[in-house]
Amino acid sequence: MWNRLNKSMMVCQMMFGLSFYGVMVILTRFFLEDLGYSEADTMMVVGAFSSIGPLFAIAGGFIADKFLGAYRSLTIAYAGFTTGYVLLVLGASAANVPMALVGIALASYSRGLMSPSYPSLYKRTFKTQEDFENGFPVNYSVNNVGAFLGQYLFPMFVLAIGFNGGFAISATMAGVALAVMVISQKPLKAVAAEIDQQPVSMGKWIGFIATSIAMIALVFFMFSDMDTGKYIVYAIGGGAIAYFMFLMASSEKSVALKMGTILIMVGLTTAFFVYYGQMMTSMNMVAINTMRGDLFGFIPVAAEANMAMNPLWCIVAGPVIAMFFSALEKKGIHFSTATRVGFSFILTAVAFGILTLAVQGIGDDVVLRPEVFLAIHFFLAFGEVIVGSMVVAFILSVAPKHIENFSVSLFSVAIALSGIVGAVFSTSIALEKGQEITQEIVQTVYGDYFSLLTMLAVVMVAVAFGASFVIRKMLESAEKAEGTTAAVAAKA
User: Fold this and answer.
1) Residue 82: exposed, middle, or buried by beta-carbon count in 10 A (0-12, 13-18, 19+)?
2) Which residues pair with 368 in a beta bridge?
3) Is the Cβ–Cβ distance between 268 and 463 less than 8 Å?
4) Residue 58 neighbours by CB under 8 Å, 6+ apart
5) Rg (CA), the chain
């Protein structure tokens, strides 16, 4: 199943995890301490950084499908990451807010180029769809190895070499990924789609450059004014879904039914990632304000590095989930993707239930131990790996080939919408600068918020299981429609 090409791509994935999540984990303190942002504004910016990139996967999917191809798009994305992190180095060195915002805007846009292109190209390095579906969860874990190391180590790096030093490390890692793509150009292009093997006209290059400049400028504006920016996210996300529905309405019945199942999965994915986004916003702020002590009494963990516990568990979860479902399938037990997402919501409800009990029962010292967050991230990570790896594989299995990259980008649209919605929700627990953290605030403000999220997660379990039934019926109808069309064609 494994070969040199998909291993090379996994190296790039790990470098992305190291650099991107290393930047993300130190952004909260960077904006709070160096740039003087409030808790609410910081949560919006960090939440947007985690989600606006996937939003621009809409543009990334279109660019890969129509302009450059997946290989070129991915290579340019790694170049964009490298440049964006260099701008963050300069912005941190001079405490320059506009330069820092340009840096994260460029990194966000680059993530949009990468998101649909990576799985599309990675899929083609495998011989069969089955090999890809079994290998993609492992790739997800490789990404999380990088994410774990980045989120755990970068807060310590900042203590030693400052924010600009941390951003410089990320720039170096992104540069390594770029070098791997350049070195592997010939074999990757050989397995890529036809558009990657054809030369790109000057007109298409000009169109791509103009589009990129416009998109980066838009992202910069959104980061500069998040009150307006969030509505831009809603408009772009809604527009992408509306366009997909237009394509669906103009397709033959069997294709339209399959595309309809993608929309249902996008809805479930959006709901799940509202919870996932809390790790970067509300949960991270709670950890910064309350988490104290070493993990198990001897492992030092910075408060903002609690997020590293998520990829730590994801590293474990990827192979475990792949082996678990493969073993069930060998025994003839098959769960649909939507049913598996239902399992993810069960895990999510348990995670937020633990957090709710922890904050509601916090003591007079207003301290939560790192072990509490370790348990929470355990359940969230297993849910995340199920949704993050299997929904993309499902979309690729039913999407029309001529809009494959665009269809995959809807998964990223779901992440973008959920990230902004989740960030908006999380600002309801933001405290004023200098406000004292008391037992009452933690129990009421934090406790009520996470209690509500727990109850809504339980509701989503039922919704996901109901969606599984609907999707199964739609796919059965699609197969019947395909059979009817084939029979008519045979008689013609």
Assistant:
1) buried
2) 291
3) yes
4) 112, 236, 240, 406, 409, 412, 413
5) 22
> 188-230 pLDDT, tens per residue?
888 877 888 888 888 888 988 988 898 889 888 888 887 788 8
- Other C-beta atoms lying within 10 Å of the C-beta of residue 482: 16
Q: Report how far residue 3's alpha carbon sits from residue 431's, in angstroms, rounded to the nearest whole number.
A: 51
CA atoms within 13 A on the CB side of 401: 2
Length of the chain as a residue count: 492
Q: Which residue has the tokens 């033959």?
A: 252
Output the six-digit token pair for 275: 């919870």
First-to-last CA distance in the chain? 42
**Closest to 385 (Cα-Cα) out of 138, 29, 216:** 138
Phi, psi of 299 (to 5 degrees): -105, 110
- Segment 175-188, tens digit of pLDDT: 999 999 999 888 88
Neighbours of 228 (CB within 10 A): 10
Q: Can you tell me the distance from the alpha carbon of 223 to that of 111, in angstroms, rounded to the nearest whole number?
A: 15
Q: Are 115 and 64 in contact (CB under 8 A)?
A: no
**pTM, full prediction:** 0.75
Longest CA span, the chain: 80
Residue carrying structure tokens 């509601």 = 360
Listed in sequence order, the residues at least 6 apart from 327 whose beta carbon sits closer than 8 Å to its beta carbon are: none
Of 420, 110, 487, whose CA–CA distance to 236 is shortest? 420
Report the alpha-carbon distance of residue 168 to residue 191 in Å, rounded: 33
Q: Which amino acid is at 93?
A: S
User: Per residue in 6-47, pLDDT tens?
Assistant: 778 888 888 998 999 899 888 888 888 888 888 878 878 887
Residue 168 is predicted with a pLDDT of 94
Q: What are the residues facing 295 on neighbouring strands?
A: 299
Q: Is 334 helix (H, G, I), strand (E, B) or coil?
A: coil
